[in-house]
Amino acid sequence: MEKDNDVVVFAEYGNEIDANIVKGVLEDNGLTAGVLGDSTANALFHMMNEGNYKVVVLRRDLETAKAIMAANPIETADEGESNGDDSND
Q1: Element (H, E) at 26
Q2: CA-CA distances (angstroms) from residue 65 to 10, 35, 45, 57, 68?
Q3: Which of 14, 25, 74, 84 makes the best surface tag, with the fewest CB within 10 Å?
Q4: Could you give the CA distance from residue 23 to residue 25 in angstroms, rounded to a whole number?
Q5: What is the CA radius of gyration of the chain?
Q6: What is the reported pTM?
Q7: Cβ neighbour number for residue 10 with a 10 Å cutoff
Q8: Is 39 exposed, middle or buried (0-12, 13-18, 19+ CB in 10 A)?
Q9: Exposure of 88 by Cβ count < 10 A (0-12 exposed, 13-18 middle, 19+ buried)?
Q10: Over the stretch 55-80, which tens digit does the pLDDT of each residue have?
Q11: Cβ(39)–Cβ(16) under 8 Å?
Q12: Is the separation of the CB atoms in 35 and 20 below 8 Å?
């Protein structure tokens, strides 16, 4: 059963910097956000790191997060990033 306080993936990025920028934008707008990632895997598999860093939010904030990032687009280093397209809807 899905709950409003469940943590869901908002977007995925190939590097920690882009993920943390998005996290900061969301937090600056009053949301709780986090970054899940593995720096060791990123270092070992540099060429295969797409999507290693996931920005997470609470399920209840997912639509608000999408609206915030749509109103505050950022330029990222990722070419194939998923910016706010949560496949867990």
Answers
A1: helix 16-28
A2: 8, 14, 30, 8, 5
A3: 74
A4: 6
A5: 13
A6: 0.73
A7: 29
A8: exposed
A9: exposed
A10: 999 999 999 999 999 998 988 775 44
A11: yes
A12: yes
